[in-house]
Every structure is written in C-alpha cells, then in structure tokens.
Amino acid sequence: MTTISLIPQPLIYPDFHKFGNIISVAGARQAAGEPLLINRGNCERYSDIAGLDIADAATGISLFNAKHSSLPITVDYLERHPLGSQAFIPMNSHPFLVIVADDLNGVPESPKAFLTDGEQGVNIRRNTWHGVLTVLHPEGGLFSVVDYVGALPNLQEHRLQQPLIITMDDSC
User: Fold this and answer.
1) Pair type for strands 107-115 and 96-104
2) For a disulfide at 120, which of 55, 77, 116, 127, Cβ 3.0-4.6 Å?
C-alpha cells in the first residue's frame, strides 16, 4: 500500500482559512481587525472569532485530554462532523497538529497538515475532513472543545486508501 508523506506547515490565516478559523489574537486581528476596548479600556475583546456553525441543537463545552503522539505519525482515516463546527482551544501551551482535507464528492482530497504554535486554537468548519487531535508534547494536551451536543449522529469517518505519514522538517 502506498502512502502520502506530509510535512506540517505553520498554522497561518491565509493557508488555513478555507478549513476553519484560527483562535488567537493574531488570527483575530487578521480576520476581524482591531479589538473593541471594554472594562474601561482594561481589556481587548475580539468578538465571534471562531464563526461557530452548529445545526439546530445545543452547543456544548467539553474537555478533551489528548495523549502524546510521536513522529512520524501514520494517519489512516479522517473524520468530519456534518452538524457542526468544532473549536479546539488549548488550555496549555503545547503545539498540536491540525490535519485537514478538501471534500471531493464525500471523500477527503488533497490533505494538508498544519502545526500550531501552542497558543493557537482552531475552529474546524462543519463538514471539513480532519484528523484526530494530535499533540506532540510528551505531556499530551488539555483542550476546551466547543461543538454540537445534540442527539443526532454527528460523526462520519473515511478510511484512507493511501495513509498519510506525517513527518517534520527543520522549519516547523
């Protein structure tokens, strides 16, 4: 079986935007501009930076405690959520991989891998194919996750005919 080798790129707004939003101050400034000053000027508010998209159901906040992954990583399936976007907000400063792919008639196509700086969160758009939460730090990572919590099934998985091998180069 052949594989596809991917080297993660830094997570930046222009490259990631079609897959979702970057949840960070820099990402908010790129997407929405300057913040609103609140609390008598003592706090900057960046409003609605994640662009949550949830079907007719409740939105919930969950905690995900992800285990450490070591490189190289083999990815043999991707998943997507048809009823809502998923926002992953790190609660520690550990970089994690974000693996995403375009959709071609219900099948993942042209996968890409991004590496966060440890401070960035992401909101993955509804129906966007993506890999599982992949933390590279030896301690793993704790995340606040905002997503759909309704009764309908919200998970589709697709086994890849060509697994992805995620490696690292010196630029990340």
Assistant:
1) antiparallel
2) 116
pLDDT of residue 29: 75
Note down the domain range covering 154: 4-166
- SS3 state of residue 14: helix
Per residue in 61-119, pLDDT (tens digit) is: 999 999 999 999 999 999 999 999 999 999 999 999 999 999 999 999 999 999 999 99
pLDDT value of residue 25? 83
Element (H, E) at 32: helix 25-32
Summary mean pLDDT of the chain: 91
- Quick check: helix, strand or coil at residue 30? helix
Please indicate, yes or no, if residue 171 is contained in any of the structural domains. no
Domain CATH for 65 = 2.60.120.480
pTM greater than 0.70 (yes/no): yes
Q: Which amino acid makes up residue 169? A: D
Within 10 angstroms of residue 98's Cβ, the number of other Cβ atoms is 24
Number of domains observed in the structure of the chain: 1
Residue 172 forms part of a structural domain? no
Q: Would you say 111 and 101 are in contact if contact means Cβ atoms under 8 Å apart?
A: yes
* Residues comprising the chain, all counted: 172
Does residue 44 form part of some domain? yes
